[in-house]
Write a structure and sequence with these properties.
OB fold (Dihydrolipoamide Acetyltransferase, E2P), 9 helices, two-stranded antiparallel ribbon, five-stranded mixed β-barrel
């Protein structure tokens, strides 16, 4: 029992001795020096160090606003002034004036320090002109001091800048100009009435001009269309009139040729192919334009060309149709042509000489019909006293002969 109670105590003591021996052994084996104490690290919430500003700058410059310029890699704000914001009414005018002063010149700036926004602050000259003072004298900027210059040279400029601003105020220049007096109610109403009257007059002119112009254009187009239609009508009328004259002239020539032949017999085979009327080529090409002509003209024309077509068919059968029938068909064509020509000239007001007959070719002479002759009986006179007749010669009418034409046999009608 006693051994059991002492066992945990013994176990604890043995473990403690063992741990102490191990730690002592490690400390005796290591020859390294102990680490140095830790150095305290300050808080990283302090402001960063600004780089040192240059004492002076020189070179070509460009205006950024009415009181700032860019010079090389730096932007410099002119000391002692403040220009209107670029979004305001007078801001662009101040910038333009500053840009005009430094244009084409070498700018020298004496840097006094920096603004709270880390801009360089200084006095800049373009040649012998102090840019800030010149802008103040023109009334484009106002005096402004932020108290960051900390420079005696900058403080010496304050009096001159104040004097330049005071002079601009007295002269009512730039931003110091007095606003124009408000116009009275009468002055406001009068321009409104003038504008309203002008607008009314202009509207009235527009309202009247547009319809008049449209009517004028429509009338001009109508007149132009009518002139074009009259031209086409005149061309159509003169064409068919000329063709009718040619048909009439040829019909008369054919009637004069057929008048020498027997009326109850067909035309001889020698002359039948020559009996033709001219084709109605102009009529065929322009028949669909017949509506261009008046009605009193179209009816005679339709009759003429119908008779022309009928006569042409009969002339094609001249070898089997009696000559009298052919003459009657040609006479009807001649009368229809005369009537059509008179109606065209009367309706269209065409006055011209009828030259188609003179222009038509002269009719070919009819060939002599071949005849068959039988020798006449010789008289009782001696043969030596008789006058010989050449073979195939046609005897004189006074001489009694027996003749028979080649086409004297009756032909069917």
């Amino acid at each position: 029992m006693l051994i059991r109670k002492l066992a945990p105590v013994v176990y604890f003591l043995v473990s403690a001795v063992f741990l102490s021996i191990s730690a002592e052994a490690k400390s005796t084996k290591s020859d390294e020096a102990p680490p140095p104490p830790a150095v305290p690290v300050p808080k990283v919430d302090q402001s960063t160090l600004n780089p040192l500003a240059p004492q002076s700058l020189e070179g070509p410059a460009k205006a950024i606003s009415g009181d700032r310029i860019s010079l090389g890699d730096y932007q410099v704000r002119l000391y002692g002034i403040a220009a209107p914001d670029m979004g305001s009414e007078r801001g662009p005018a101040a910038r333009l004036a500053l840009d005009t002063l430094i244009e084409g010149q070498r700018v020298k700036c004496a840097v006094f320090g920096k603004t709270p926004t880390s801009e360089l602050l200084g006095k800049c000259n373009a040649g012998d002109i102090d840019l800030a003072k010149q802008l103040l004298s023109q009334g484009l900027v106002a005096v402004y001091r932020d108290g960051t210059a900390g420079n005696d040279d900058a403080a010496n400029l304050d009096q001159a800048y104040d004097a330049a601003e005071a002079l601009a105020r007295q002269s009512n220049l730039g931003i110091w100009s007095k606003p124009a007096p408000a116009a009275s109610r009468t002055e406001k109403v009068q321009p409104f009435l003038n504008r309203a009257a002008l607008a009314y007059i202009f509207g009235l002119i527009v309202v009247l001009t547009i319809p008049i112009t449209m009517v004028s254009i429509w009338r001009s187009k109508s007149h132009q269309d009518e002139r074009w239609r009259q031209m086409r009508r005149y061309t159509m009328a003169t064409g068919v009139a000329a063709e009718a004259e040619i048909i009439r002239a040829v019909a008369k020539q054919l009637m004069s040729q057929l008048g020498e032949l027997p009326k109850d017999r067909p035309a001889p085979a020698a002359i039948a192919p020559l009996l033709t009327l001219p084709t109605a080529s102009f009529w065929s090409a322009n028949a669909e334009r017949l509506e261009l002509l008046p009605v009193e003209v179209t009816v005679p024309l339709l009759r003429l060309y119908a008779l022309h077509e009928e006569a042409a068919r009969k002339l094609a059968l001249a070898m089997v149709i009696p000559t009298g029938t052919l003459i009657g068909a040609l006479h009807a064509v001649e009368i229809a042509a005369d009537r059509a020509i008179d109606m065209i000239e009367g309706a269209m007001g065409i006055t011209r000489e009828k030259t188609a007959e003179a222009a038509a070719p002269a009719p070919a002479p009819l060939p002599v019909e071949p005849t068959l002759t039988t020798p006449a009986k010789a008289p009782s006179k001696p043969a030596s006293a008789a006058s010989p007749t050449p073979a195939g010669a046609v005897p004189r009418p006074s001489e009694p002969t027996k003749t028979q034409t080649a086409d004297s046999a009756p032909l069917p009608r």
